[in-house]
Amino acid sequence: MASPAPLLSNTAAGDNAQGLPDADYWVPLGYFAIYRLLLAGLLVILHLLQLTPAPFGSHAPSLYVALCYGYLAAAFVAAVAVRNRMLPFNTLVDIHTFTDIVFITLLMHASGGVGSGLGMLLVVSVAAAGLLSMGRTATLFAALASLAVLVEQSYLSLNAPDHITREAINYPQAGMLGATLFATAALAHTLARRIRASERLARQRGIDLANMAQLTDYVIQHMQTGVLVADAGGQIRLINATARQLLGLGAKPIAGTPLGQQVPSLQKQLMTWREGGRQESDLFEVPQTGQQVLPRFMPIGNGTDSLIFLEDASDANQRAQQLKLASLGRLTASIAHEIRNPLGAISHAGELLEESPGLENGDKRLLRIILEQSKRINAIIESVLHLGRRDRARPERIELSPWLQRFLEEFQRNATCHPGDIRLKVEPDDLVVQFDPIQLHQIVWNLSLNGLRHAAAAPAPKLEISAGRSGQDTWLDVRDHGPGIPPEVAEHLFEPFFTTEGKGTGLGLYLARELTESNRARLICLPPPDGGARFRLLFARSPD
């Protein structure tokens, strides 16, 4: 039996073995890189089209233009690094943010300071850094950005040209921008922490669900009951190994194929059940295996899909057989007590009467009838007692070819037949079956005796015993060359106490079938086209 795949671990959710973010984290970093490319590209395009809005570049136009092109080049290089993952994730986040602080602060300086409004772009960079780095360095970047803004304002106040008024230097606005940056960092840290917790919980639940699905699939695949799921359109969605074996579908992939194409009889019952025509299902025989299968249907989900349980009818037959045997045991005990004692008295009285010298020929004839019928009743009682007392089957591995050779030698020694009356044929020689050897001996012996008795007037060979393999089925045939079995008789062959002979008990074939079914095999009658009778024993398939 195949062992289940190892279950997933829910440790270090969101990080790999080195503590670095997994592949999913690179996607938002790629979006951040695209945002920086678009921002730098927009500034360059506005300059080329001479649509740069005031006051952008009003303080140092040449520096502004150089910074726009430099920012675009830096953003492009960083985007390539993200695309090819040239550096560790956290390193790239730090480079992106630090580059933004430097270039945006310089662009703000070239545009006349904090009053240009470019400083607000630092808020986006600090927020992105806080979310991407899960809040670990957001406060640091907020401090660096605030310090850069204050340094820029201080430098501008000390070196302001004459055409820039002192009113352009606005420390309160710089302070507000710094406060906004720290507030953004704090918010990013809180959001990042909640995102990490939510992601860890989602990852853990996802792993738990994956493990549960894996465990459920393992249990379903190894159930002794066949399980099949069909959707509203009759397509097979799931099937386990037992259902494949029962339906003779082998290992070929059939998920997504129509159920009617694979097992038409099962599809017909499913449609009848869905339409509400019948709530109880019927046994159906699988042509590929010859097994009788009992389906049970139930809806799943929103009712559009159907869950089908498939049971081997031989299991149910075995349970019923055990109950039948228990009843037979009680019946035979009653028969032994109620019939055998008076029958013994009748037989004994008949034997004593037979020794009387004054009996006439007519009386002797009636007496022989009494003794013969007493023996017949005793034989019936012995058969019924044997049927009720038989033990549970104990299957063993039997090599058919040597076993049949030994059986034939024993049978010819004890049965009234000549060596040429029976022909044996086994192909191939390596046939192996699982069967109780004592019960197999009793079945073949019974069939062989019946065959010789019905083919007594036929030329040699009167009886043929053969074994072979058809596909995955192994069979054993006992065929006689007698007059054959009429159709009206064949319908009742395996019924108890049914016989066509005055001296028969009618329990031989019934007992043979009972023994066969207790070994999960089948005994059937197949009339040959050229006359005679043929009984075939289909052995149970050996487990893989």
User: How many strand units?
Assistant: 12
Distance between the termini: 10 Å
**Average pLDDT for all residues:** 80
Low-confidence stretches: 10-21
| Count of discrete structural domains | 4
Number of helices: 15
The main sheet comes to:
5 strands, antiparallel
* Strand order, sheet with most strands: 2-1-5-4-3
Helix and strand element order: HHHHHHEEHHHEEEHHEHEEHEEHHEE
Percent range for β-strand residues? 5-15%
Classification by helices and strands:
alpha+beta
The shape, in one word, is rod-shaped
The percentage helix is: 40-55%
Explain this structure.
With 544 residues, this protein is an alpha+beta fold. It has 4 domains: 23-208, no CATH class; 226-314, PAS domain (Beta-Lactamase), CATH 3.30.450; 322-389; 396-538, Histidine kinase-like ATPase, C-terminal domain (Heat Shock Protein 90, 2-Layer Sandwich), CATH 3.30.565. The protein has 15 helices and 12 strands. The protein has helices at 26-48, 61-84, 89-110, 121-132, 138-158, 171-221, 241-247, 259-262, 264-274, 313-354, 361-389, 400-414, 437-454, 487-490, 508-518, and strands at 226-230, 236-239, 284-285, 292-300, 305-312, 396-399, 422-426, 432-435, 463-470, 473-480, 522-525, 533-538. It has a 5-stranded antiparallel β-sheet. A hairpin with a 2-residue loop joins β9 and β10. α3 (89-110) runs parallel beside α5. The termini are close together. Residues 10-21 have low confidence and may be disordered.
